[in-house]
Design goal:
Layout (H helix, E strand, L loop, with lengths): L6 H26 L5 H14 L5 H25 L4 H19 L8 H11 L6 H25 L4 H26 L5 H24 L7 H28 L9 H18 L16 H4 L5 H26 L4
Helix pairs in contact: 1-2, 1-6, 2-3, 2-6, 3-4, 3-5, 3-6, 4-5, 5-6, 7-8, 7-9, 7-10, 8-9, 9-12, 10-12
Length: 330
């Protein structure tokens, strides 16, 4: 069914199915294990599936598990030592949440720790006792987190990789259009170039987020590193386009940048090839006639920016093409 929908609607259908399956499976599994509060497993499964939209699902589940265990241990400790009474309860909650929030600053794996600690401290006065409550909470959240991971892996496991491939090719196409506009050196294209720069930035941000959603199994660390390297190479190519734009659109550029414009056209062709899933011929070392040390004399802003941008583009575009090949995107 998802194949017959638009990419956006297909993604929505996938997310809905993953969420529904994870929540239902977590409820049944927690009930089967006779956990006292199965809804905590359901909530954890939903949180893992939902949070995986902005980051790796395994990392999200790991962080939630670590935070739960830490919060449960801290909450049980406070619940055991505090004397009875509302004042000690309030003080224990205030101190434990403050300490855990302080320790959790910049540490995503501790985000949920204050919540778990509060639940254990507040509920520890009941018949269950703090130790039993802490253990139950840890088990419930671990079950839900595990179910969330399995739901992501079992339902549409290849979708994130396919989305990454599609977005990488689209980003290459957008970079090609932007570089072609910049190389024209026409001041009338300034507004369109600004819009294209913003669009390319959005695409690269989305590409980085999609890369985090690709779940790698043990032994796939190289591929994970290559995806991160590809995203960095794209950002460098975008920076090279910015530098070239300063040269081509400098007031003193006139028609003196034709050799660099022709060199930029070669880069456009290679970006277009990557956008079609075709292997691009390497740019290779820059021609010495275009190099900064030979082509530029004195304080020539236009030629200097063009020479620097072209030299960097040769290096960075070849690196980008190598990353495409390593990830089998071409």
């Amino acid at each position: 069914m998802a194949r017959a929908l638009s990419p956006r609607r297909a993604a929505e259908v996938r997310a809905a199915l993953q969420m529904a399956v994870a929540a239902t499976a977590a409820l049944y599994l927690a009930t089967l294990l006779r956990l006292p509060h199965p809804y905590w497993s359901v909530i954890s499964a939903i949180v893992v599936v939902q949070a995986s939209v902005g980051g790796g699902v395994v990392a999200i589940a790991r962080d939630r598990a670590i935070g739960t265990v830490t919060g449960a241990l801290a909450g049980a400790a406070f619940a055991f030592v505090r004397p009875p009474g509302m004042e000690s309860l309030a003080l224990s909650i205030a101190v434990s949440t403050a300490v855990l929030a302080f320790l959790g600053t910049g540490r995503p794996w501790l985000k949920i720790a204050p919540v778990t600690a509060t639940i254990v401290i507040a509920g520890g006065a009941g018949s269950e006792g703090p130790a039993s409550l802490a253990l139950d909470r840890v088990m419930e959240i671990l079950v839900g987190s595990g179910v969330g991971v399995v739901a992501i892996l079992a339902l549409f496991p290849r979708h994130a990789r396919q989305a990454f491939k599609l977005q990488a090719r689209e980003a290459a196409g957008e970079a090609a259009v932007l570089l072609a506009l910049v190389a024209k050196g026409d001041a009338r294209d300034a507004a369109e170039i600004t819009r294209r720069h913003a669009d390319l930035k959005r695409r690269l941000d989305a590409l980085g987020q999609t890369a985090k959603n690709v779940v790698d199994f043990p032994g796939a660390q190289r591929e994970t590193a290559d995806r991160a390297a590809l995203a960095r190479a794209f950002w460098r190519v975008r920076s090279d386009i910015v530098i070239l734009g300063r040269g081509f659109h400098d007031e003193g550029a006139d028609g003196r940048l034709t050799p660099w414009s022709q060199d930029a056209a070669r880069a456009v062709e290679r970006l277009e090839a990557l956008s079609r899933g075709k292997a691009a011929d390497p740019m290779g070392p820059i021609d010495q006639s275009l190099a900064l040390s030979i082509a530029v004399e004195g304080d020539d802003m236009a030629l200097g920016a063009a020479a620097i941008g072209a030299a960097h583009m040769h290096r960075d575009l070849d690196d980008l093409a190598a990353r495409f090949r390593d990830l089998r995107l071409v």
